[in-house]
Amino acid sequence: MQQKTVSRKIFVVINFILMLFVVLVCLLPLLNVFAISLSSASAVSGGSVSIIPKDITTFAYQKMMDNPLFWSSLRNSVIRVVLGTAINMFLIVTAAFPLSLGSGRLSGRGFYIAFFMTTMLVSGGLIPTYLTIMNLGLLNNFMALILPTAVPVFNLIVMINFFRGIPPALEEAARIDGAGYWKTLYSIYLPCSLPAIATVTLFCIVYHWNEWFSAQIYLNDMSMYPLQSYLQIILNQTKPENMQSMTNAELEQMSKLNSQTINAAQIVISTIPILLVYPFLQKYFVTGLTLGGVKE
Questions:
Q1: DSSP3 helix / strand / coil % (the chain, rounded to 5)
Q2: Domain coverage including residue 216
Q3: Which of 57, 76, 100 represents a domain boundary (last residue)?
Q4: Whole-number pLDDT of residue 242
Q5: How far is CA 196 from the centre of its chain?
Q6: What is the rounded CA–CA span in Å between residue 259 and residue 236?
Q7: CB of 269 within 8 A of CB of 276?
Q8: pLDDT tens digits, residue range 16-34?
Q9: Nearest-angstrom CA–CA distance, 258 and 248
Q10: Which one of 37, 57, 77 terminates a domain?
């Protein structure tokens, strides 16, 4: 018994050391990025910044936030995340429920699944997609950022597979009690699927928050840009080929920056909202895992 206790203590110590090493490996790059974002351009260019800022300055953050477009783009990103995620989740859940039912319950079920899967394997291409958006009258329209990705197929497949794991006995009991399809979905499937819903919701939030390319294609009005598109513009301004047309005053300001400090500040600004949202969804990964159990 004493030998078992000693071996257990050795295991705990070794496990703690390994976990501490993993934490440091994950944490050090984040600290390095944060230190670069707060360091001067000369210190960063000289390679003297590790995890502690050198010549501390917040000019990189000031450069981004002084422009009124920063605050309008932040508002646009929040709107896009809320509206886009709501549309995604509604369409994912309402599509996954009938597609998860057994064979014979939905006519053409195999065709619909194959149709969705095809969009993952074959892309329409940039130009055809642009022409489609133009013909739909969505150019310079905020919905052009949301509707083309209204049904993310990967997330749909995740939800279908989770719905299939829900015991049929629950649905049969609900149908015997007189529940229709909508009532069954709302009362049985959704409460049993909180882990999957939390996972897919987080995927959708991260996508809408990080995506920047579509705004630069479909939107002409910069006041409609989301935050990531605005930050990308600021980052491009620090490139040497884009500084030739600047005035002397602008060049003097840009000399305090380089692409590394701007890029690091962009990463910090982009990461903070996701880090704030994740703890609220994390509890569903833990407490929701047992909600699908059936005791017979």
A1: 75, 0, 25
A2: 59-290
A3: 57
A4: 53
A5: 15
A6: 8
A7: no
A8: 999 999 998 988 988 999 9
A9: 16
A10: 57
Report DSSP letters for 57-123, one per residue.
Answer: --HHHHHHHSSHHHHHHHHHHHHHHHHHHHHHHHHHHHHHHHHHSPTTSSTTHHHHHHHHHHHHH--
- 229-282, pLDDT tens digit by residue? 988 887 777 665 555 555 555 555 555 677 788 888 888 888 888 888 877 777
Q: Using a CB cutoff of 8 Å and minimum separation of 24, what contacts does 117-124 make?
A: 117/153, 117/157, 119/153, 120/153, 120/154
Specify the number of domains making up the chain: 2
Given its phi and psi angles, is residue 140 left (phi above 0), alpha (psi -120 to 50 degrees) or beta?
left
Q: Residues 143-173, buried b or exposed e (16+ Cβ, 10 A)? A: bbbbebbebbbebbbbbbebbeebeeebbee
Residue 23 CB burial class (10 angstroms; 0-12, 13-18, ≥19): exposed
- Which residues, including other chains, have CB under 8 Å from residue 109's CB and lie 6 or more apart? 98, 99, 101, 103
Is residue 89 within 8 Å of residue 204, measured between CB atoms? yes
Judge whether 2 lies within some domain: yes
Query: What average pLDDT does the structure give for the chain?
Result: 84
93 and 30 in a common domain: no
